[in-house]
Amino acid sequence: MAAQNSMERVKLGNQGLEVSKLGYGCMGLTGFYNAPISVEDGIAIIKEAFNKGITFFDTADVYGKDHSNEYMIGQVTLTYCDAYCLDPRQMICALLRVPFLRFEDKIENK
After folding, report:
1. What angle do CA 55, 74, 32 make, to 5 degrees?
2. Per-residue pLDDT tens for 11-55?
3. How is domain 4-99 classified at the CATH fold level?
4. Is residue 93 within 8 Å of 19, Cβ to Cβ?
5. Residue 33 annotated to the active site
6. Is residue 35 classed as helix, strand or coil in its secondary structure?
7. Domain segments of the chain: what residues?
8. Strand partners, 57
């Protein structure tokens, strides 16, 4: 499990939620800038970030197909929640952006 004291934490908003001061941007996991990595490798990367104390993950639906970033974050959350009987809201905060229409979804090939 993450060493919660190894990373400085800050309050996010006014609800009392605390997250790591350093976040992890997930855009590179699913091919936005580069070729996508495997789901297994993505999960391993997110687990390693969490184990280092990062609890704030930035993602959006436009970053990959089929919400793969959200799936990977969810798998890590489930793994640790099951293993340590924790409330997922106390473990990982994922910043999810508003849905975005991709241009290729609207282009018709004629």
Report:
1. 85
2. 888 887 888 899 998 888 887 778 888 999 999 999 999 889 888
3. TIM Barrel (3.20.20)
4. yes
5. no
6. coil
7. 4-99
8. 24, 94
Residues 6+ apart with CB under 8 A from 88: 77, 78, 81
Tokens standing for residue 109: 């090939």
Going through the chain in order, the beta strands assigned E by DSSP cover 9-12, 17-20, 23-25, 56-59, 93-96
Which candidate in 63, 71, 80, 84 is catalytic?
63
Q: How far, in Å, CA of 58 to CA of 27, rounded?
A: 8
Contact call for residues 71 and 38 (beta carbons, < 8 A): no
Which of the four pLDDT bands, split at 50, 70 and 90, describes residue 56? confident
The pLDDT mean for the chain works out to 76
Average of pLDDT values for 82-104?
60
- The whole-model pTM stands at 0.73
